[in-house]
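Good morning,

Attaching, inline, the backbone tokens for the sequence recovery test we're adding to the shared suite. The designed sequence is right after.
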């Protein structure tokens, strides 16, 4: 059931200058909302939202969510947190602080203002899953002391905080468990697989497969994901989630590499590198719940989404001629 109130709102997007955040801000601005975009530019950049700066209903603020924030808003999308393993492992203590202290501050803000608040959680809460595809009632298999734990356990703790603020203080919460999402405005050096493979293919460099490439992921195009996030925010107040948002079209990392090589027409060859610790073997969302609650399912096919992402990277890194 949808919240029928579609009035323009004052909306805070933390991590709004990042990959997902910038698309979300763009969409909310287009819908006529007043958007306060907050970011510390750790992995995001002003460039990602430069095209919104002249809009009268857009405001950009440099702020770190681990510090308190006093503003007046009606909705909060809490996206602040590095998402790429390379970046979140760079300063793991800061990553956990961002998830945990950031959640406490944003929940405190929501409590004071009465704002509805959505958490960008992750499929990483399922860890290296034994249940496949992953359903929301699966509690996951996370190594609490491994290299990914700063992110996984930080996000798990944030979910706990969201539900405790809801039970203890009656907050209106929404928790989205986002699965691998890709698209324009991913950072070229982000380290995630789609951006790495596209940048490597366009430059004619070797494509780096970690492990034997048989591990799987399911890739969702950013426009579909933004539809899901906004749809979840607009649900009836009784709906909290967690709700999986992702594309169930699963493929191995080798298959992804082959598709990208073929789409770019690149001469790149595949090379094999060691598999990082605790790298999940398989991942695919069960999106039945999102279908029921939000009437949502992804519409963009992988090849279509990859083509749009490649166009972005070609323009970004000035590699138009390479690999064509
Ligand atoms: P991203 O790294 O592009 O964006 C994160 C943004 O948060 C960046 O702009 C960064 O500068 C900002 N940030 C980091 N720490 C901050 C802090 N302490 N204070 C303020 N801002 C801070 O990554 P993304 O892919 O856009 O991910 C956005 C959110 O979605 C993250 O919370 C991530 O965990 C979640 N998520 C993303 C995916 C995905 O596949 N893209 C999957 C699961 C979950
Ligand atoms: N907070 C904030 N903005 C607000 C209200 C609170 O950043 O508008 C932060 C503040 O740092 C506080 C945290 O949110 O410590 C949690 O707030 P809450 O009211 O839950 O707890 P308390 O203030 O009692 O510690
Ligand atoms: N990966 C890879 N080569 C790369 C980057 C990543 O083979 O250059 C693999 C990585 O080991 C993982 C998968 O691709 O199995 C997805 O990695 P990503 O960092 O994008 O996301 P996550 O592991 O968090 O799902």
């Amino acid at each position: 059931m949808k919240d029928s109130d579609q009035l323009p709102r004052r909306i805070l997007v933390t991590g709004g200058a990042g990959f997902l955040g910038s698309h979300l801000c763009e969409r909310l601005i287009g819908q006529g909302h007043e958007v306060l975009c907050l970011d510390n530019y750790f992995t995001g950049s002003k460039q990602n939202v430069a095209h919104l700066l002249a809009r009268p209903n857009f405001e950009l603020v440099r702020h770190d969510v681990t510090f308190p924030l006093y503003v007046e808003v009606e909705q909060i999308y809490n996206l602040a947190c590095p998402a790429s393993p390379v970046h979140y492992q760079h300063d793991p203590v800061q990553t956990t602080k961002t998830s945990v202290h950031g959640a406490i501050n944003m929940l405190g803000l929501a409590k004071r203002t009465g704002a509805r608040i959505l958490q960008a959680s992750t499929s990483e809460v399922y860890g290296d899953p034994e249940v496949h595809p992953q359903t929301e009632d699966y509690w996951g298999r996370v190594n609490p002391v491994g290299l990914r734990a700063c992110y996984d356990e930080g996000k798990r703790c944030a979910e706990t905080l969201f539900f405790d603020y809801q039970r203890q203080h009656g907050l209106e919460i929404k928790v989205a468990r986002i699965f691998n999402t890709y698209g324009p405005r991913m950072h070229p050096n982000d380290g995630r697989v789609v951006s790495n493979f596209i940048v490597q293919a366009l430059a004619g460099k070797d494509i780096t497969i970690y492990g034997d490439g048989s591990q799987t992921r399911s890739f969702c195009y950013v426009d579909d994901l933004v539809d899901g996030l906004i749809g979840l925010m607009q649900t009836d107040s009784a709906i909290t989630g967690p709700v999986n948002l992702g594309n169930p079209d699963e493929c191995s990392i080798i298959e992804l590499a082959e598709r990208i090589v073929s789409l770019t027409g690149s001469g790149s060859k595949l090379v094999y590198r060691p598999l990082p610790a605790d790298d999940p073997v398989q991942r695919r969302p069960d999106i039945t719940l999102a279908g029921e609650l939000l009437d949502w399912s992804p519409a963009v096919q992988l090849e279509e989404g990859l083509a749009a992402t490649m166009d972005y990277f070609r323009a970004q890194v000035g590699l138009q001629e390479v690999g064509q």
